[in-house]
Amino acid sequence: MSDPTVGSLRVSGANLHYEVRGQGPVLLLIPGGTGGAASFDGVADDLAAAYTVVTYDPRGMARSTLDDPEAAQHVAEHADDAFRMLELVSPGEPARVFGASSGAIAALHLLTARPERLTRVVVHEPPVVEVLPDAAEHRALLARVRETFHAEGLMPAMAVFAAGLAKGGDTVEPKAEPEVPPRAAARAEQTMAGLPYFVGRIVPAFMSYAPDIRRLKESADRLVLAGGQDSPGELPHRATAALAERLGTELRSFPGGHIGLTTHPREFGEALLKALRI
């Protein structure tokens, strides 16, 4: 597969690094966590056999710089960035979108804000904890993460955050750490570099987001909700399952756990291709 076309898109308050590969209908991939466009390295080429695949680093991550490095972050602004990316590569034409984790939250908001621009939206484990009956407990978790981050630093805050994600409502048997492909392991430095921004500003903004259930129901025929087959009981999976129940839609099972995109790229890509079919 040939190298992607690389560019930079100016949006309000930021410059977004993006990459385009393949041909066919447009498929925009919105990353979660700190991986940026590189988090799709394991699936982008295979998807590009059927689609014009657009990947990018969200504002403040990796190669996408903020005008004000201390600026507060908002889901609606990140969703608008995704819309601007679609307008760049596919002006006025409906497109498909996939979002993972925090990127899945941006994709959900994009669907409620610009439904006319989207033919299919697939989201994998958006941690929309506000839809859960125990949402107050998770607001308290976010407060503990924020307090720990400011008082003790990054790694103690990450430990609090990881424990909160893992315990969920169900009992989850301890699992061995999944093996990560070498290419993904090589991104560890970028992942670590982005953690302070992610924990300090993305997590509080995104995990306090309450999706518009009414508007999502209006577009439910275009929305696919997916959870990892290895992650039931973990907080992002619980939230996604609760959202599926609220919308009266199926929760599809994708290979691996919350980071199945990284640990099972080939199988994850195959599941995504099936989910994208209209």
TrEMBL record:
The segment(s) forming the AB hydrolase-1 domain are 25-140
Can the keyword GTP-binding be found in this entry's annotation? no
Per its UniProt entry, which superkingdom is the organism in? Bacteria
Source organism per entry reads: Streptomyces castrisilvae
Name-wise, this protein is Alpha/beta hydrolase
Question: What are the alphabetically sorted keywords of the record?
Answer: Hydrolase
Under the heading InterPro entries, the entry gives: AB_hydrolase, AB_hydrolase_1, AB_hydrolase_fold
GO MF terms listed in the record are: hydrolase activity
Q: Which Pfam families match?
A: Abhydrolase_1
